[in-house]
Design goal:
Elements lengths: L1 E4 L7 E2 L4 E3 L6 E3 H15 L5 E5 L2 E4 L2
Length: 63
């Protein structure tokens, strides 16, 4: 799954503390939050999220 920062557009990296982190603007989100959003998406659409943007604590699915 591709995870990008909505603020600056960069690809977010997974840290050793299981968070997605944006090195440019210091946005971050727990990996479990993305997994929960993916589970809800998978239940509705029968497929995983391919690309997500992070805006604050919100996971935005890019179709």
């Amino acid at each position: 799954m591709k995870v990008t920062c909505d603020t600056c557009g960069c690809d977010m990296k997974i840290t050793s503390t299981f968070k997605y982190h944006c090195p440019q603007c210091n946005n971050g989100i727990e990996m479990v939050d993305i997994q929960e959003a993916n589970q809800e998406y998978r239940d509705k659409h029968n497929k995983n999220i391919e690309w997500a943007k992070i805006k604050g604590n919100d996971v935005i699915v890019v179709e």
